[in-house]
Design a protein that fits this description.
Helix content is 85%, strand content 0%. Helix 4 runs antiparallel to helix 18 and helix 8 crosses helix 16. Among the domains are: 118 residues, no CATH class; 121 residues, no CATH class. By secondary structure, the chain is mainly α. The two termini are 50 Å apart. The protein is built from 19 helices and no strands. Keywords: Membrane, Transmembrane, Transmembrane helix. This is DUF445 domain-containing protein. It holds the Pfam family DUF445. It comes from Paenibacillus zeirhizosphaerae.
């Protein structure tokens, strides 16, 4: 594209070529009796005619020469509609037709280009800052008020669809397989042993024992014997006897291979299995579960937990280090994994090409409409200025070449005429 200074210089050169031809012709007229001057006069005359003719032709493309409405001049303003139609047709059917666009797109590996662009963008200094800003803004603007009811309803639905019977059976199975029943028994025995070793336990047990015996309703000799027995004992002696008895039972149950422990564990495990497989228990447990879930109003609690979670998350994101530590390495690994998956890349390319081709197919007529719209926005003066800006230098060279060509032809024709004379 010619620069403005070059266009002005070319226009000046075209004007000077016409001036020189006219001045030369005028200066040579008084001296045509001389052969050489007559030859130059003919050359200048033909050069002037050629320059004027080309000036008229070039000017007539854009406007009326000298403002005179000569027929078949100002061709561009008069044929603007035809030129616009031709331009639109050329763009739609030749330069940017659907087939050529689709063919060019098929040769481009768009998926790889997108990955390259993403990789370069992530490597830029501002990538971490942009990701940090976007992530914080996204988390801080999450509509928790709208999310809380949805999450609450999903929790309720999950609870109601879960079979409590299966959960109970699984719990019983895990309890037996992992020995939780034995651990519970051992813990209970440890607590019982610790309680029995307390000094106040003796008095408590003795008092309870004495009261239980005293409340017995006996007759005759049996009553007399019990009264004698009670006269011998007191709360401390009674409590110590009961404690020793209970401690012996506790010690027996704490011994792994003791028959009493084995019998007790067998009975306990049987009861656990029976309870876990009882269909009536399953039904009652499910009914209770569903009733509690249906009446549960957990929106406020869920919203509070979500707000607490958001606050903790934003606090942990405060310094932005998580982007370099987690986000960017994760993105880099994802890009690398995509590069290694040729099948996936091929599918992505096909999908991208199909999407772009479909868009072009659907919107191709908009290309011509856009060209027409932009052309029609310009008035004649603006359109002429644009054409002269793009073609002005070449058109001015037509004027210069016309003057020079006329000059040379004038020499030839005048020389032939002089020879014939």
């Amino acid at each position: 594209m010619a620069k403005p200074k070059q266009r002005r210089q070319t226009k000046k050169a075209a004007t000077w070529s016409l001036i020189i031809m006219g001045a030369g012709f005028a200066a040579s007229l008084p001296f045509q009796q001389y052969g050489a001057v007559r030859l130059l006069a003919g050359a200048f005359e033909a050069g002037m005619v050629g320059g004027l003719a080309d000036w008229f032709a070039v000017t007539a493309l854009f406007r009326h020469p000298l403002g005179i409405p000569i027929p078949h001049t100002a061709l561009l303003p008069k044929n603007r509609g035809k030129l616009t139609d031709a331009l639109v047709s050329t763009v739609e059917n030749n330069l940017l037709n659907k087939e050529s666009i689709a063919a060019k797109i098929k040769d481009v590996r768009l998926a790889e280009m997108l990955l390259d662009g993403a990789e370069q963008a992530l490597a830029s200094p501002r990538a971490a800052e942009a990701i940090d800003l976007l992530a914080k803004r996204l988390i801080s603007r999450l509509p928790l008020d709208s999310l809380a009811p949805v999450i609450t309803e999903e929790i309720r639905r999950q609870i109601m669809t879960q079979d409590a019977g299966q959960l109970l059976e699984s719990l019983a199975k895990q309890t037996l397989e992992r020995g939780y029943d034995q651990k519970v028994l051992d813990y209970a025995l440890e607590q019982a042993e610790a309680w029995l070793h307390k000094s106040e336990t003796v008095i408590t047990l003795g008092t309870m024992g004495m009261q239980a015996i005293s409340s017995l309703q006996l007759n005759g000799l049996m009553q007399l014997a019990v009264s004698a027995f009670l006269g011998y004992l007191n709360e401390e002696r009674m409590g110590d006897m009961i404690r020793r008895f209970l401690l012996e039972r506790v010690y027996e149950l704490q011994m792994e291979s003791h028959p009493r422990r084995e019998a007790f564990m067998g009975g306990l495990q049987g009861q656990i299995e029976k309870l876990a497989s009882d269909s009536e228990v399953h039904t009652r447990l499910n009914d209770w579960k569903n009733e509690q879930a249906a009446s549960w109003k957990g929106e406020e609690m869920v919203l509070g937990k979500l707000e607490e979670l958001r606050g903790r998350l934003l606090a942990s994101m405060e310094n932005g280090a998580y982007v370099q530590t987690y986000i960017l390495p994760l993105c880099a690994r994802l890009i690398e994994d995509l590069r290694k998956d040729d099948e996936l890349l091929e599918r992505l390319n096909e999908q991208i090409i199909m999407a772009i081709t479909g868009w072009v197919e659907k919107n191709h007529n908009r290309i011509g409409s856009l060209v027409r719209e932009n052309v029609e926005k310009m008035d004649n003066a603006a359109l002429i200025a644009l054409m002269e800006d793009k073609l002005g230098q070449d058109l001015q060279w037509i004027r210069i070449n016309g003057a020079l060509t006329g000059f040379l032809i004038g020499i030839v024709l005048t020389g032939i005429r002089m020879l014939l004379e």
